[in-house]
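Lecture 7 notes: from sequence to structure.
We start with the chain below.
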Amino acid sequence: MRQIYPILTALILIVAFQWLFNTSLPYKILAKPQHGNLTLTVVPEKTRINEGEAFDIEFMLKNDGKNTINIWKPEWLIDYDIAFYYPNGTPVPKHRCPVIQRFQMTNKNLMELKPGESIKFVLKADAWRGCWILRKGEYLLKAIYFTGEPENEKITKPYWVGRIESGGVRVVVE
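Predicted structure tokens for the same chain:
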């Protein structure tokens, strides 16, 4: 009978660890947000377009801080987005953008950004073409980069948590 106790204890521990690592509990304990100074720049392919035309948009995310930080690899609608505003500051409503099924982030979704280093990425015109209906007029284009809290992800490494917005770029639709 005494020999069965170590076997039962081992089975209980195996089941407990299996349950523990299939929940977000270890990630709440292990993942910590990093602090850093990121800047985001948005550069449209064109600033004068014809009505109904879309254009590529380039982004640059730069680490202006003194420490290396981990960031989420840029992916549209997961951790960055664009927004258009009327001249009075009111956002242009989205028309029909894609809906994304998002899974919890893991360490594979992180990339390292050293001090002074930047990453460039492009949002292709075909990706956002139907999201906004831009009539003739003037608009302000901005970009937003954002990441979620560690307890909502399966990331064990520290990473930058927050939201930053680029300055605006004037876009004229003719």
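Points to note: The longest strand covers residues 137-146. The first helix runs from residue 4 to 20.
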